[in-house]
Amino acid sequence: QVQLVESGGDLVQAGGSLRLSCVASGNIFSAIMGWYRQAPGKQRELVATVATVSSGDLTVYADSVKGRFTISRDNPKNTVYLQMNNLKPEDSAVYYCNAKTPFNVYWGQGTQVTVSS
Fold it and tell me: pLDDT digit string (tens) for 89-101?
């Protein structure tokens, strides 16, 4: 069983930056870690994922955040980060951490990000 705890959400002005953190209670080395977000009235959507492979970390980003967001992981600390720069009002949402292992999928409780114009 893996528990995920997110932090770092806040109210920020457009153009600002935030860094979200997700700390896992167990070893996440073999898991594909990701950040998803859900805005009011919308479906939850993928923001970014990171997988540790033999050659390093493999990342995937939604088109809407490419060039502005960076996902990274610190496996010894069982932590995943989402650095968000040049934030836009449309980035406002609850951001959820996700861990996919060969056997299970885990979700955190979410952290609110609000970007004011």
Answer: 999 999 999 999 9
E-only strand ranges, 2-109: 4-7, 11-13, 18-24, 32-38, 45-53, 56-61, 69-74, 79-84, 93-100, 105-107
In tens, the pLDDT along 11-26 reads 999 999 999 999 999 7
- Picking from 84, 77, 74, the residue whose alpha carbon sits closest to that of residue 35 is 84
CA nearest neighbour of 33 among 65, 1, 58: 58
Q: How far apart are CA 104 and CA 110, in angstroms?
A: 18
- C-alpha–C-alpha distance, residues 12 and 57, integer Å: 29
